[in-house]
Specification:
The complex is a heterodimer of chains A (411) and B (225). Chain A is α+β, with helices and mostly antiparallel strands. In chain A, 57% of the residues lie in helices and 17% in strands. Chain B is built from 7 helices and 10 strands.
Chain lengths: 411, 225
Amino acid sequence: MFRGFLIEILRSAIESIKANKLRSLLTTLGIVIGVMTVIGVMSVISGLKKNVATSFSQLGANVLYVDKYPWFSGHRSREEWNKIRKRSNLDTKEVQALKEYGTSFEYVSPVIGRRLNMERGEKEAPEVDANGTSEDFAKIINQDVSLGRFLSKDDIKYKRHVCVLGQDVVNTLFPEENPIGNKVKIQGRQFNVIGILEERGEMMGHSMDNVAMIPFTTMAEFTGRRGISITIAIYAENEEEAREEIRWILRGVRNVKPEEEDDFSINSSEAMINQFNQLTKTIFLISIAIAGISLIVGGIGIMNIMLVSVSERTREIGVRKAIGAKSSEILGQFLMESVVICLVGGFLGIFLGASLTKLISIMSNGNLPFYIPIWSIFLGFGFCCSIGVFFGYYPARKASKLSPVEALRYE
Amino acid sequence: MSELIKMKDVTKVYPLGETEVQALRGVDIVINKGEFISIIGPSGSGKSTLMHIIGCLDVATAGSYFLQGKDVNKMNENQLADIRKEFIGFVFQDFYLLPDVPAWYNVSLPMIYNRVAPRERKEKAIRILENVGLGDRVNHLPNQLSGGERQRVAIARALANEPEIIIADEPTGNLDSVRGEEILKILSDLYEKGKTIIIVSHETYVAERGKRKIYLKDGRVEGKG
């Protein structure tokens, strides 16, 4: 019948909390805030991580981007920044060298990114992400065309005025007709549409289909080439090996002396995710510390109120003992009460934390998905139970040690 | 008749600040099964202390106490709790009911510690309440009951685990004489049914109900009626 007894002390704990609703609610506030913080932060970070991971994987797995600048800055001093700014631009000679000497990677493609307006008659597609690139870029980022064809070697060689359009651009400029073979105006020049890119969806609220691909050589005419650094996209099965080889080749072609650092950056989506994880880890630890403090404060509140409860109910404890309750049963009763208060707090905290996450998700227009890791809920409840037992033990023990005669005499 | 309670030379000393109070100074008592005993004496005579020791709420400082042949002085706290649970039912002057729960739940309380199944507990509690004439007050809270009714609930609670002994400490102290008489009637009936009843009181009309009286004065038994 031990189960029956547990149910009974649970019932008596709930009764006693119901009898002191406001007091119990105020007591549990610290726990509520602590758990809410844990759930809220964990959910937001988990959602962010999920989002970032899928977004970056859309940049292409196994793709390295060689750039003048590092993508993720992290902590750098002013001098370091000045050093980076003074790096010489990356140019086609680096592309050539990589193509010629590289053995650990397959495709190398220069990329010049620009935001350009595209027009067709009265219609205009503003701020299109235009990439000046080469025929290999489609293979590097695993991009297919849904209609027509991608850029060809000859398009690059002869600086043809051709373009491959993303679905968003097509929707804007050619709502009702087949764009292939038609012309669009970019920077005042006419371009032939040769293909349509397959849809890629969104990344962090930014459409991946508002794009256009034109030959790298044609783009260079717009930008004037001088003073701008290109990006080199590389597809590599083995990222580590490829990184080493790229460094080796580029240091050679850019005459970097052995004692000097690399004067270029090799970026990848994976490295960026790692950096991001580092950052979230810090946020996570800080919020855990905050939550921990509020849980401890909450626990002390619980202990305080349980001590009050024990002294208020000294007579009751005396009666229970007189009718045969053992010390351990009194201990169990008061421990249960403190655990139940904590669990109520935990439940409220989880509810509020989830609501907060939902609110953030709505306010971010769905860029932050509403995602609550199941383990964080278990962790929340586990924490509450532990706090209930830990901070409830002293008052409960005090109650259980009361002598029945003195407890009955207590006024 | 078999000996239920046998005390020999029981003393009880309380510390009181720097000094000590000698509440019992060598008490010898024998109570047989099925007796109706009144313990009488002025306040400060040690009645309550004696009642606490008989009821295993407290232990003697010295002397011997055998309950059904078992040496109470050698029992630990849990064993004492078991004795209180199974052998003894208490009725207090101030009733000591739990205020937030209905009458039947108050009566069922001792059965919780005796691990009686919930359904059985409630059924039995209601049955006992009916026996003390409170069949229509089962779901009332203590503050919805009169003093006499509350004391009857308390008696019902004392009976819950079918104890051998009922110990009543000034059971009529907070009641008018009519209600008090009702309570005493119930206790007499229980005696008729074979329970051992011990009433502690300083009121003679209450004490007169006992078939045997034990007079206490200054911590000693004065004489036996």
